[in-house]
Amino acid sequence: MAFPLHRPRRLRRSAILRDMVRETTLAPSDFIYPLFVVEGRDVRRPVTSMPGIFNLSVEHAVAEAKQAKALGVPSVILFGIPGHKDARGTQGYARDGIVQRAIRAVKEAVPDMQVIADVCLCEYTDHGHCGVLEGGHVANDATLPLLAQMAVTCAQAGADIIAPSDMMDGRVLALRKALDEANQGETPILSYAVKYASGFYGPFREAAQSTPQFGDRRGYQMDPGNAREALHELAQDLAEGADMVMVKPALSYLDIIHRVKERCDVPVAAYNVSGEYAMLKAAAQNGWVDGERVMMEVLTSIKRAGADLIVTYHALEAAKLL
Fold first, then answer.
1. Cα 199–202–205 angle (5° rounding)?
2. pLDDT in tens, 242-264
3. How many CA atoms lie within 13 A of 196 on its CB side?
4. Most buried in the list 62, 122, 223, 287, measured by CB within 10 Å?
């Protein structure tokens, strides 16, 4: 190959050329926007560690969903923070719980918005763990019926997609059976199939008021050093009936997203988590990076790794730029 014959820079000479040959592109339809819904009226409380993100009462969550839809973002994922918590997280699966009411309100106001219900008990338990406790440990099998109840009540409230994030063994099968028996067989499951025990979740725990009151979640979330285990988790959830799968977090696990995408033929989502968002915002506020440029680079990297969908707190800001 003669050096003067092949010059890759020829295709970089102008913005139009670069756009024409770009291999990975973003669109607002790639994004899922998380919303934190709380009890009360006219609540729009800033999450201090996540600039631009708020705890929202139901009517403000509806307004955010309307704005997302107007910007071309087709889906929101809802996290509920109840006024009362207990050891079994009963408000998570109450028919009139905060997240069930929020689902109904969003679907009534924006019928064609895809509403995803995050199914986990950590926001609803007084101890902050993702399931019920027995002997000071999270009891896997005792937690499954409660998660199943939550999935059913969220689907009955109008959730279009159920997304279990608890990392209990067998939860996808338990939810699939419960949904089918409740005449919600058309409701798909987006499983957090590969969820690591990460230090990047801190700001989320402020927003969702879900910090464990003792210990941590390493007994049920994955070890960050493991990659083969991710594929095992993936295979198990697919065998149990998951319609879509998710990798969480995203940026430190781009290699895992790529492996998951290569291994399965269902849609793959990735969660651009709260710590990733907070670090970028802090750097931008200090003038250390160009916030908008780095945001788009981050989101592009997640999609380039193989994600079909990206759960991101940047959704509205990125959609406006796109």
1. 135
2. 999 999 999 999 999 999 999 99
3. 26
4. 122
